[in-house]
């Protein structure tokens, strides 16, 4: 397995683990809220308007919103999808642009600083691995160009 493929596979594994772990913890800690969604109906889980025109959201409504934004509305689902995409691209031999890695690293670093302690920093590591894999591709292309120029 090439170094680039190995780096991308590690990065995607970190992303998938972070996203799946986040959703798993939500199920463990907010199971009652998720089950209540099934009783109320999925459309009633996070209402768009305050109940009865009240100025303050009810505690139950606020808890539903927190559960939504900690679960299906969080970074977890897109992070899993990005991890799966990068895993597939690595297996196909397609290079992932360094900009994807930089964006992921910066986003996760800022998230880690704002929400300490958190596993956001592991996401920054995944971003750095994507950048390193992209640079590995640049080096191999440059080496090939150099060899072609010498012959």
TrEMBL record:
Protein name, as recorded: Integral membrane protein
Keyword terms, alphabetized: Membrane, Transmembrane, Transmembrane helix
Source species taxonomy: Bacteria, Bacillati, Actinomycetota, Actinomycetes, Kitasatosporales
Organism annotation: Streptomyces lateritius
Transmembrane segments: 7-32, 66-87, 94-114
Keyword Transmembrane found: yes
């Amino acid at each position: 397995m090439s170094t680039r493929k190995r780096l991308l596979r590690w990065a995607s594994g970190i992303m998938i683990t972070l996203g799946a772990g986040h959703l798993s913890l939500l199920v463990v800690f907010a199971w009652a809220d998720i089950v209540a969604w099934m009783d109320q109906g999925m459309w009633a889980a996070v209402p768009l308007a305050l109940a009865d025109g009240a100025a303050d959201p009810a505690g139950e409504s606020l808890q539903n919103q927190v559960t939504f934004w900690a679960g299906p509305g969080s970074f977890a689902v897109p992070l899993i999808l990005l991890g799966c995409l990068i895993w597939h691209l690595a297996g196909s031999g397609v290079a992932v642009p360094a900009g994807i890695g930089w964006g992921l690293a910066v986003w996760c670093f800022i998230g880690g600083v704002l929400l300490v302690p958190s596993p956001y920093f592991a996401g920054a590591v995944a971003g750095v691995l994507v950048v390193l894999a992209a640079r590995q591709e640049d080096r191999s292309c440059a080496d090939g160009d150099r060899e072609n120029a010498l012959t």
